[in-house]
Fold each of these.
Amino acid sequence: MGRVAELAGVSVRTLHHYDRIGLVRPSARTPAGYRAYRAGDMERLREVLAYRRLGFGLREVAELVDDPSADALAHLRRLRGLLRERRDLADAMVTAIDREIAARAEGVTVTPEEQLGLLGARLYDAIGGAYLATRRTEPRFAAQIGEALGDARTVVNVGAGTGSYEPAGREVTAVEPSAVMRAQRPAGSAPCVAAAAERLPFADHAFDVAMAVSTVHHWEDPVAGLREMRRVARRVVVLTFETDEPGWRDRFWLTRDYLPEFAAVLADFPSLRGMAEAIGGARAEPVPVPWDCADGLFEAYWRRPEAYLEERVRRAVSVWTRVGPEAERRAVRRLGDDLRSGRWAERNGDLASLDAADLGLRLLVA
């Protein structure tokens, strides 16, 4: 273990900790009876240390290295993409800093917009790095989306993110504006174009179907983006959120009791009817959220409230970034208090008997 620690540039104490929590366990024995690392153990250790040095927490690392869909080559490609992305972001920030230094030296006023531009202040660039740990394909969502796609052969996935819901067996083109998200797309996924929904670089009716999954609320102009989808495809399928129904804020206990600021996040969000009209008079299908939802979206843990106390869960959901740190801290503190005291269970005990809940997710199909 000492030799491995020396080679890896970590302490023996760190290796003992990884062994104790089951992250990397030496699986061999020397003739003298000492524990030793096999080649596979060393490969796993390399992956663990690489993800740790990219800033992932131990729980996130465990989920990443235990991902059954990723072999050693997939991990290397993923790490390469993340490292290149960080390099590109660092280079861009250095360039922006140089410009600001020059401007201030000449007495030029730097606007707040320009200052935020220094950070590449896109929401997905702030939260995208956490997606690998908790945002995975929910098979029941995927089945409903697949049915809505019908017999489409060519599909454009707008706001594609890491490609969780891109259908297999079809010719898919992905569109994703965030470089952070593009870097996390797995090897072998659909080709991805760096573009925004509001300005799709395709000809009219270039695809059989345009799809968008849990992304419209991030667009600068949702209606314009939806109209673009209608322009480039003969049919449109969109998974989004309904705010038309009176009392919609009270559907979910988290927004009702702990995070009233959620209403402000969607204050300017178009109505479901308006979105349906933008893509040509779509029908709306309810999308129930299963209690064990694999995709860690905002509503996913409605029957598992303890999950919202976990930093890694919140960091992969844009709502928490949008409401701000003060509201987040207050909501987490109050929820933790209520879980410990039993008040949450008293208010929401009826949820334990439900396998799925209608929390406002809707599939628009046009």
Amino acid sequence: MTDTRDFLFLSARPEVEAVGPEYESVRRASGLDAGRLDHVRLDVESIGDLDPRRYSGVIVGGSPYNVTTPEDGKHPTQRRVEADLARLAERALATDHPVLFTCYGIGILTRVLGGEVGTLYGEEAAPVEVTLTEAGRSDPVVGVLPARFDALVGHKEATSRLPDDVVHLARSAGCPVQVYRAGSSVYATQFHPEVSAADFIARARVYRHHGYFPAHELEALRDRVNSASVTEPQRMLRRFVELADARTAG
């Protein structure tokens, strides 16, 4: 009998109006129905010492939190969220279990692995061209994407020094580390692999005063996003799910 465990989506957005749409973006892009994608809001409850092997795979969403914020400037909720995600990362790495950290999550994973996160390579909210590395072109997850493709970004911090012993998979002109893999199954992306153009524009409206772009340029951002083709990154998310399921079944 095939083991079809559920997947888990972990959101870390305090803005209620952004939470449901992010979950739906992940669910649609991954190809999972709602019955197979559990959802935990980390800003509301702790996952404690969750063993990721309870699920076929885990997907970590984005957040307006920044890991580079000084510790004494972080809200207690953010400190708890980061502790939860760090424990999850350690367990996933120890068991090489499929977990995909996106946007905010890449900063958590980078720090757990001993790399560095800084503000030098932040990117304003926009579509950008992402280029696969040679390793990326042969990677089982990222390799389903074209060698060059457009993705949607918006982040104030990024990996400034790759951790040792990870595989660098993709970069952009403004951000040298867009995707990497640790072990064979733990992935991290700086761009948002789940969002459609409409999803991103709706999210931009929620965060228009958060410093990801000049608030008065919202309509111009909408036009730039609508003129770009940003369907490719979602294929990465679907492939991650396919391979996680195959691993569980195997």
Amino acid sequence: MAGHGADEHPHGADRLCDAGDRVYSRAVRRGRVPRRDADPVPCLLELALLHPDPDDMDWLVPTSPQEVMTRLLRGMYDEVSASQRRLGSAVTAVEWYAGLGRQVRPVAASAEGPAIRVLDGLARIQAAMDEATRACTTEVLTVQPGGIRREAELSEGLHRALALRGRGVRMRDLYTHVARHGQGLLTYLELMGDAVEARTLDEVIDRLILFDRTVAFIPANTDRTMALELRHPALVEYLVTVFERLWRLAIPLTAPLPDTGIEGISHREQSIAALLAEGHQDAVIAERLGISVRTCRAHIARLSETLGAASRTQLGVRIAQAGLDGSQHSTTPLNVPGQGSPSVR
């Protein structure tokens, strides 16, 4: 009964429902009401505004309005007192936290900046990079994904590179093999002289720039309009380790790419074959190697022709037989058409 009344009459004695008001007023005027009159308004019993007549349980007698008023005022007083106690506790807590705040020494935080900072917009990224360049004294490590570097990309950071070279800072850059064929990169390296050492790989990680092994910059979105500035020692050290391992695997820009050992198949086509064997689509392969999809498909066509494959399925088999899928070269002879080796870079 109590639950039923609470659902239908969600109120207190200070705001009776219309039906409850009528029944209680009638009980006060008459001194009592039949129990059945209170059936539609169980809230009156729940709020102790009506209670059974001890002389006749079929009747209900009202609690006097004066007692109800006293009860309401006492409840309001208790609520106000509780609010005052909570307010006092909150004020005490605020004063305590304020005292702790005055004890904090912000020197260390302001000297090095936050461990991770989001740079939103090219202007903020450039400003942060310029600041890191000015503070750099020893070494810069960079990973530059993509294919042939455009002149605009190289000239964008040229002023920083020249400033670093002027202070004797050493620079090491990692590129994809495709970047070897860009005249802009060759001109840039010639201009920088022995201040920059460059190596290349089939594919590299996303863009990374490390200054003095204390601050790193990485992209925060695909179009590179946002970046993360990282100063957390553990994160920076991890990125340095990744760079150093890639560096050991990379080939110096001044050294030729190794021969594949298979006549008519270039180093790039060997890389494409390995990625095809992993099940990657043409667009993914092109992005990872830093070439266009059109160029990637041209290499796949040459690869099919060289291996004598008439379909993609047969090409996969031929790639595995030739050991171009990353395994050791197979001793199974291939029936490669007797054609001259295509001139492929």
Amino acid sequence: MHCESPIKRRKSRQIMVGNVAVGGDAPISVQSMTNTETTDVSATVEQIRRIQAAGADIVRVSVPTMDAAEAFGAIRKQVTIPLVADIHFDYRIALRVADLGVDCLRINPGNIGREKRIKAVVDKARDLNIPIRIGVNAGSLEKDLQKKYGEPTPDALVESALRHVEILDQLNFQNFKVSVKASDVFMAVAAYRKLASLIEQPLHLGITEAGGLRSGTVKSAIGLGALLMDGIGDTIRVSLAADPVEEIKVGWDMLRSLKIRSKGVNFIACPSCSRQNFDVIKTMNDLEQRVEDITVPLDVAVIGCVVNGPGEAKEADLGLAGGTPSNLIYIDGEPNQKLTNENLVDNLERLIRAKAAQKQAKIDEDAKNIIAKA
């Protein structure tokens, strides 16, 4: 019932953002960006920790001023996740956060200023082995490109990116990744596809300014999903006008759906109809919130009736098929026990946690055996 993923990753150069590998054969990383005032150190630290707890691999922080740079240094000391500093215009900010322990600099070399300033930032990045992300955005294209193309286009985005790439090439600096973001799905997808064929560096994917939680999720899933299915992309950020934690959840849902990377519970649930023998929607809403802390990959099917229930449940690690007078639980594809609707969510949570613990123990045991044989 479940097909293997046919996706073949684009070959790219690998860089390190802190302790997270990006590109090459490394897992596609998931990241988000804080939306607190960076100078509010406690609020920013608290948000970064929530983003990390949701499953982020990397977090980006805007650093628009020297005061924010000093605050970044304080933040860096209080969190463990790799941090990217988002910097525009003032090269001195880049130099300062580099000394304060930044793991990656998000800049556009062309807007840093004169060649001497660009070289100073690149030299510092080289000396401290800090990668750079070139971040091109359709909303902030260079004026001459706006005039040349009349409006943002995929070719304009790529031309802008290649300009910045050329600057780094001339400085013999290859430790970088690139993004070419647009709010228009077709524009972003076309730009990334073209750029992927022209450079070997890793690509940071995103549909910028995608919208609110619902509309932005849909737009991002279409755009990033198309690219990921092409094998394009080494790290992703889902841009939502919402709590950054939601960006991480959506990012992981995308990777799980494409069988690229798994983490936490993957629910297979029916949309419910009059055949259901329990309230599927309420059950799912409660379960998703209760088991968000589980990190071990686990497939759980929650199906309201006997039409598709047994088939889906047999393919999952744990499955529930609605029935009368009792619902049937499957574990590892085999019927295991019956549950009534009374305390159904409590009992499901208990079974899911037990199965997750069992699966984690197996993962740990396999890891020990590999180490022992090495």
